[in-house]
Specification:
The complex is a heterodimer of chains A (465) and B (239).
Chain A (H helix, E strand, L loop, with lengths): L10 H11 L17 E11 L2 E5 L16 H5 L9 E3 H17 L3 E10 L6 E10 L3 E6 L2 E9 L4 E8 L2 E8 L7 E11 L8 E15 L2 E14 L12 E18 L5 E14 L10 H4 E14 L4 E11 L32 E18 L3 E17 L19 E2 L2 E15 L5 E9 L5 E6 L6
Parallel strand pairs in A: 1-5
Antiparallel strand pairs in A: 1-2, 1-3, 4-5, 6-7, 7-8, 8-9, 9-10, 10-11, 11-12, 12-13, 13-14, 14-15, 15-16, 16-17, 17-18, 18-20, 19-20, 20-21, 21-22
Chain B lengths: L6 H11 L8 H5 L2 H6 L4 H12 L6 H15 L1 H14 L6 H21 L3 H21 L4 H17 L5 H13 L6 H17 L3 H14 L4 H13 L2
Classes of the chains: A mainly beta (465), B mainly alpha (239).
């Protein structure tokens, strides 16, 4: 999947959480160490992948895999934030081992990952880390309204993946290499065609090509650049022509991206913090045939999300704050979308005239209940999860005049003051889907705003995390 | 592409097979066809026993033949597992009804391993589910039979260790049932019990407890199959 990071300043949040939760709350006592702050040495990291055993003792010499196609030990090591020779406090190593296990499980590439910290029988101040896992089912299948997808993860055992989309309203391909040149670099590219001819409000054909490169200084952090080109052919005779005139639009863009995640496991509660963001420039050039004022066409845009989830397997409070800012009027295919962005939307019925602001602040708050899990033969590890939500957004539209739109596109609009308006939704939903080996997730939600207008939606996502 | 690696499943069945007659007194074991079958590890010997039981009019012959085929399937599932399922399904006797059901379930999971090797993940998952359903039924029929408990336990551990499907509740129930009868177990079966405890503790990330159980398994019967497997597992967890 192409890397789609966004900007977020998490350092302060991380410091607050670290100060609050301290060092690895709830971790078991150290093995053979009276002083929990005393440093121990990682003498060996052992990978047991299916029946292959690899001993990683020299940090500069990763063992070679037994055969091509099997997961490379370096691929597994790319999920770790420790290596042989590291000097760490016992509790810190255990916390890192737990986080590594969560990352390996979350990758969807392996079955039954386990990361154990064991005493060394050679040195009481040394530890052996045993990482055992099974090769997972690598194929991915899915789809949506009028398209299907097939893909492969951990292609060649080297943290590569590809996707192919085919259908009436979506076609194209994506490729990503998460271990470029064997380094912590992620390179991704995609080329996708889509249209809205099967029922969208605005009829268009769209082509998007994207390339990104990111550096992964830590398994949970990514810092990169994103280069893309978006082309849209908006067909005539559509109701929003006053805002988005028919014609061909081309919009190349360049953005810096950042993503980070922090995990604070605990016995009673765990805390997960995640953030991503992007900031960049794009060239809003439309229509393609018209003469262009290049200086005026360059637009800046930035957006970001921060999510915090505290809870356990029975209950969780999930908070997410999102923000977006754009300097001027952006073409349709670059505008923010508060109506249908997965996991960052106002989940009630929004007016067309207010769904794509120039600037916004959005809070998504969810109370999540326990998962009901059951097995549907032959291999559907099914879950159901209820949640309640409140979405609050403060948005501003500067450049487009709603009076130019027909009445139908202003239906259900919230009151505005100088282009600024407040949106809200309160409701509940059901998350359902299939865990490994299928790895497909959905959210069905229903929300109402203060005017009593309901909105119902189904998105292909398991919620922000 | 693998749904799972079933290598451990075959070994697990082999270990569990050897305790099928564990509750019987020594004198009775000598005359027990089940014990005779379980003590025959050589494929040629098993095949001669199979020919004899397939020609027999004994009311339990289909069970004995199915058991032999099951044990042959552990070594070559593609060749024998289908016949093992058919023979055990054809058994209509009452004496080994629960045990036949359990071995049939185990044979079905061996068939799942064949499907998996052939890349048919959907069929493998389906068969795995069916196999465990049969073993669960066997426990419901006769939960006191330790051979059935061991068989389900070993299958459950192998699957929980290698796939996204967890059998931990059933594993815990089987260990509790076997633990209640621990005093009556012979050393090899006790080693198998402690080895299973260690594997469950590893699934639960309780490394220190797992190591203690492994040492105990080795102490109980160092030369038994379970004792040897415990040493191998311990070697993977030690520097």
């Amino acid at each position: 999947m192409p890397f789609r990071g966004k900007i977020g300043g998490l350092v302060l949040l991380w410091l607050v959480a670290w100060a609050t939760f301290g060092q690895a709350p709830g971790q078991p006592a150290a093995i053979g160490s009276a002083d929990p702050a005393a440093k121990i040495n990682i003498s060996l990291v052992r990978f047991i992948i299916d029946d292959s055993v690899y001993n990683w003792r020299d940090p500069a010499a990763m063992p070679e895999r037994e055969a091509n196609g099997l997961s490379h030990p370096a691929m597994v090591a790319s999920f770790l934030d420790f290596r042989p020779g590291d000097q760490l406090a016992e509790a810190d190593l255990r916390r890192r081992a737990g986080a590594a296990e969560a990352r390996l499980a979350g990758s969807g590439c392996f079955y039954a990952p386990s990361v154990l910290v064991l005493p060394s029988n050679r040195d009481p101040q040394a530890r052996l880390v045993v990482i055992s896992l099974r090769e997972g089912f690598r194929w991915r299948f899915g789809g949506g309204n009028a398209f299907g997808l097939v893909g492969l993860d951990n292609f060649g055992g080297l943290r590569r993946s590809w996707r192919l989309y085919a259908g009436a309203n979506l076609a194209g391909a994506e490729y990503a290499d998460g271990l470029l040149f064997g380094l912590p670099l992620e390179a991704a590219g995609s080329a996708l065609y889509s249209n809205s001819l099967l029922g969208g409000l605005l009829p268009f054909h769209r082509f998007e090509a994207e390339a990104s490169l990111a550096w992964r200084p830590h398994p949970d952090w990514r810092l990169g650049i994103n280069l893309d080109a978006r082309y849209m052919d908006l067909l005539p005779d559509q109701p929003a022509a006053a805002w988005f005139p028919a014609g061909s639009w081309l919009s190349p863009g360049l953005a810096a991206t950042l993503a980070a995640r922090f995990r604070f496991p605990g016995q009673a509660f765990s805390l997960n913090l995640a953030g991503n963001g992007s900031a960049g420039l794009s060239l809003a050039a439309w229509p393609v045939a018209a003469e262009l004022d290049w200086l005026a066409a360059v637009q800046a845009q930035a957006s970001g999300r921060l999510a915090a989830i505290v809870g356990n397997e029975f209950f969780a409070l999930a908070l997410q704050a999102s923000a977006g800012w754009s300097a001027g009027s952006l073409p349709l295919n670059r505008r923010f979308d508060l109506a249908s962005t997965a996991d960052a939307a106002v989940r009630s019925a929004l007016s067309f005239s207010q769904a794509s602001p120039d600037r916004f602040l959005l809070a998504n708050i969810e109370l999540r209940g326990p998962a009901l899990r059951f097995f549907i033969p032959p291999f559907f590890n099914t879950y159901l999860k209820l949640f309640l939500f409140a979405d609050l957004a403060l948005a501003e539209r500067q450049t487009l005049d709603p009076a130019a739109l027909p009445e139908a596109l202003r239906l259900n609009a919230a009151p505005e003051t100088a282009g600024a308006y407040f949106l809200e939704a309160f409701g509940g939903g059901l998350r359902f889907g299939f865990d490994a080996p299928v790895n497909t997730h959905f959210t069905l939600h229903a929300g109402v705003n203060r005017s009593g207008v309901w909105g119902i939606g189904l998105v292909g996502s398991g919620g922000f995390d | 592409m693998k749904l799972t690696n079933f290598a451990g499943l075959a070994l697990a069945c082999l270990l569990a097979c050897n305790v099928a007659g564990l509750a019987a007194p020594a004198a009775a074991q000598a005359a027990d066809p089940v014990q005779a079958i379980q003590s025959a590890a050589d494929p040629a010997r098993l095949q001669s026993l199979l020919a004899a039981w397939q020609a027999s009019s004994d009311p339990d012959a289909a069970f004995y033949a199915g058991l032999i085929l099951h044990n042959l399937a552990i070594q070559d599932a593609a060749r024998w597992a289908e016949s093992a399922v058919a023979s055990l399904a054809a058994y209509r006797g009452g004496r080994y009804a629960a045990l036949a059901l359990a071995y049939r379930g185990s044979a079905v999971t061996l068939l799942a391993s064949v499907d998996n090797q052939r890349g048919n993940v959907v069929a493998a998952s389906s068969r795995l589910n069916s196999g465990f359903a049969l073993m669960d039924q066997a426990v419901l029929l006769d939960g006191q039979d330790l051979a059935i408990r061991f068989l389900r336990l070993e299958n459950g551990l192998a699957i929980s260790e290698t796939t996204p499907f967890s059998r931990q509740p059933a594993i815990t129930a089987d260990l509790q049932a076997i633990g209640l009868a621990e005093a009556s177990l012979d050393p090899a079966s006790r080693a198998l019990y402690y080895l299973a405890c260690a594997r469950l503790k590893l699934l639960q990330r309780q490394a220190a407890a797992a190591l203690a159980c492994l040492y105990r398994a080795i102490d109980c019967a160092p030369q038994s199959a379970a004792g040897r497997q415990a040493r191998q597992l311990l070697a993977r967890l030690e520097e």
